[in-house]
Amino acid sequence: MKHPTYAVAVAAVLGLALAGCQPAAGPLTAGSPAAAPSPSPTELAAIIQAAVEDRNGTVLDTPPAASLAGGQATAAYLSKREQDLSKVARSKAGFKAMGFWYTSFSTKITVESVEVTGSEASVRFKELTEEYQASTANGPSSVPSGYSLPQTATFRSSGNGWQLDSIAPNVHGGGLPMAVVE
């Protein structure tokens, strides 16, 4: 090559110019996909179990303390649950006015699929719940009523891990359990 010093200088200038065209790299934010590792189905199922038990507990005559931990749900999820409580309270009051109330329940969650896309996860699951009732006429019943309800939970990644963002039934319309508000 005739002008090796010139070629090195041009290559250096060209390299610096191209480097300036690259977007600046910034720190990862809490909502970025790399903020939390991919969730385990067991971890997500435990969060769903706690949330569904909290939801189902709202129909009991004396609801138990919430079991969903503080950082396991988004503000949007917590806000919707708070709004749903007044609707559940009205239904529960009407049920009790007819002489019936729920005394206990048991719930089992079965995860059917988990899909993760970036900072969001979608979990299809089935809830199997048995509820025990009492009535003013007959007292407590030893025979439960039950339901199986397919649902979808969505999660969002945060700096603290994965947070529950919503739970919605996969079937719509009448016939949903008292605790499930669409």
Written description of the protein model:
This protein is of the alpha+beta class. The protein is built from 3 helices and 5 strands, in the order H-H-H-E-E-E-E-E. Strands 1, 2, 3, 4 and 5 form a 5-stranded antiparallel beta sheet that branches.
Low-confidence stretches: 1-35
Oligomer: single chain
Task: Provide the residue-averaged pLDDT.
Answer: 83
Give the helix proportion (percent range). Answer: 25-40%
What letter string, H or E per element, gives the SSE order?
A: HHHEEEEE
Tell me briefly what this model is.
Helix content is 31%, strand content 32%.
Primary descriptors:
elongated, disordered N terminus, 5-stranded antiparallel beta sheet, 182 residues
Task: Set out the fold topology.
Blueprint (H helix, E strand, L loop, with lengths): L3 H17 L20 H17 L17 H23 L2 E18 L2 E16 L3 E2 L4 E14 L2 E9 L13
Antiparallel strand pairs: 1-2, 2-3, 2-4, 4-5
